[in-house]
Amino acid sequence: MLTNLEHLGLAVRDLAAATDLYTRLLGQPPYKTEHVASEAVDTVFFQVGGSKIELLAGTSPDSAITKFLEKKPEGIHHVAFEVDDIVAEMARLRTEGFTLLNEQPKRGADNKLVCFVHPKSAGGVLVELCQSIS
């Protein structure tokens, strides 16, 4: 079951400029930066109440974020929801007819297991499932 809006993922071209902009906008610095080699992205996280904003910048031409920004402007890339049991939620969504972009959960940023739901089966929105790793 989806338990919480975990974060909004924002694709950006210039991570330093976007970090400065959101630091000023939110009135606080990010709490974490992280390189996710498996996704070829650098991330910056801001806490906003009970949710987060994740800035994502591609680090290679093959990065999904780099490819996204070749076709679209900077902005919302995905919506992420927290789940208690990502494997069970993946099975439930498959049963409901959703197309998943991952066969198995994979390690993502911010100490999470993640899986993505294809936008074509989710009303045009890339949805990320996140489960905290203990």
TrEMBL record:
InterPro entries: Glyas_Bleomycin-R_OHBP_Dase, MeMalonyl-CoA_epimerase, MMCE/EMCE_epimerase, VOC_core
Residues of the VOC domain: 4-132
GO molecular function terms listed in the Swiss-Prot or TrEMBL record: metal ion binding; methylmalonyl-CoA epimerase activity
Any Gene Ontology biological process: L-methylmalonyl-CoA metabolic process
Keywords assigned: Isomerase, Metal-binding
Superkingdom: Bacteria
Assigned EC number: 5.1.99.1
Family note: Belongs to the methylmalonyl-CoA epimerase family.
Protein name: Methylmalonyl-CoA epimerase
Lineage: Bacteria, Pseudomonadati, Bacteroidota, Cytophagia, Cytophagales
Gene name for this UniProt entry: mce
